[in-house]
Write a structure and sequence with these properties.
It is built from 13 helices and twelve strands. It is α+β, with helices and mostly antiparallel strands and about 400 residues long. The chain folds into two domains: about 180 residues, no CATH class; about 200 residues, no CATH class. The strands form two sheets. A six-stranded mixed barrel has the order 2-3-10-5-7-6.
């Protein structure tokens, strides 16, 4: 009769929650904040993970680029890399000639300028000088209308261009841009192609660009900028072979000794994914720290509230013991109550965190998604907090002397 009944214990726990709503809210607050933080951050990060692998691969699986600067470098390394030789179009031709594993070799270089059509203008548009094959390498550019830049355009340094969807929308509205002249800086370019819309990545448009022949770019802006050499191969195995061949070609052209490091860098899709992982790992650590503090505070509050509950229910405990309840029954009763309380806080935290993540997604460009495993882990963690911090009050209740407990005032 006095022994533990699981259904009754759960019912008592919920009665305790509803009997004093303010105290309950304060009890659950730490757990709610901790779990809410976890769910919000995990939802956004998991959404970003999926987004990165689907959309942020700037290169194809078997494509890579050679650049003057490495992507991961300290300020000191950056200053040191400034001393490196620029990559040039002559390097591109050498790679085309000697790299047998390279299927396609292109090059690009960019700057930012204002563009204008009649009285309409756009600021800070990416102006990218490219070779005639560059649109097939890495982040492939497909056209909505018109044609791509040809080899003849590059050889003759023609003033022709391909515009992104943002340029078409903002400057031309319902006018067909093909055949019109776009002013870039103080030069006029004939529009020969309009790229298909690619949308945004993390709030940054992929369509705010103008592509011109790389030789025209160098004629206007000079040849002192280092270019990016872009290579397409047919497989991952071929890509590794191509990287070694490119390394051999460039080291020979730069007269590097066998014991000197490369003075150029390779970039692949994996490079950007690794950069992303490094960036998000610090967010995870911050999330763990904030959540741990919140859960610790929540656990301490739960322990204190359970101690108060033990004091308030001392006579009840004595009665239960007098009619046959064992010490482990009393222990289990209070552990169930503390777990139910913290688990409830965890569920509320999950709901609030999920709602916040969806609001963030709706108001920004950050995607969000939530793995069911994360929900299960959050519930388990919050319940475990209740079990751990409820152990001391439950043990104290179980060790009460029945005769002393029965004499206690309610």
């Amino acid at each position: 009769m006095g022994r533990i009944n699981i259904v009754e214990a759960i019912s008592v726990a919920f009665d305790s929650i509803w009997s004093n709503k303010l105290r309950t809210f304060l009890t659950l607050l730490g757990v709610i904040i901790g779990v809410m933080t976890i769910i919000t951050v995990v939802s956004v990060i998991q959404g970003l993970d999926k987004y990165v692998y689907e959309k942020m691969s700037f290169y194809g699986a078997s494509d890579f680029s050679i650049t003057k600067f490495s992507m991961f470098s300290s300020y000191k390394d950056y200053i040191e890399q400034m001393k490196r030789k620029n990559l040039t179009l002559e390097d591109v031709e050498a790679i085309r000639k000697y790299c047998k594993s390279c299927e396609l070799v292109g090059a690009s270089v960019s700057t930012t300028r204002n563009v204008k059509f009649k009285s309409q203008f756009l600021k800070n548009v990416e102006i990218r000088g490219v070779t005639h094959l560059d649109h097939l390498i890495g982040s492939v550019i497909e056209l909505e209308s018109g044609r791509h830049i040809l080899k003849e355009d590059v050889d003759r340094s023609r003033f022709v261009c391909i515009i992104g969807a943002d340029i078409r929308k903002e400057l031309f509205h319902y006018i067909d841009p093909i055949g019109k002249r776009l002013k870039i800086g103080n030069k006029y370019f004939l529009i020969i192609g309009v790229a298909k819309e690619r949308g945004k990545i993390l709030g940054f448009s992929q369509d705010n660009f103008v592509r011109i022949p790389i030789t025209t770019f160098q004629k206007i802006y000079g040849r002192k900028r280092s270019i990016s050499i872009n290579v397409h191969t047919t497989s991952l195995e071929k890509m590794r072979e191509a990287q070694e061949e490119v390394r051999t070609v460039l080291r020979a052209r730069r007269h590097l000794k066998f014991n000197e490091p490369d003075d150029f860098s390779f970039r692949t899709s994996e490079t950007f994914i690794q950069f992303y992982k490094n960036a998000t790992s610090s967010i995870y650590f911050a999330m763990i720290a904030i959540s741990s503090i919140a859960l610790l505070v929540g656990g301490i509050v739960i322990m204190n509230i359970m101690l108060v509950s033990v004091t308030e229910r001392t006579k009840e405990i004595g009665i239960r013991m007098s009619v046959g309840a064992r010490r482990k029954d009393i222990l289990l009763q209070f552990l169930i109550e503390s777990s139910i309380i913290s688990g409830t806080g965890g569920i509320i935290g999950i709901l609030i965190g999920f709602i916040i993540a969806k609001i963030v997604s709706a108001t920004t460009s950050l995607p969000s998604t939530l793995d069911p495993i994360a929900i299960i882990i959050a519930i388990l963690v919050s319940t475990s907090v209740g079990l751990f911090f409820g152990l001391y009050p439950a043990n104290k209740a179980a060790k009460l002397d029945p005769s002393v407990a029965l004499r206690a005032e309610q």
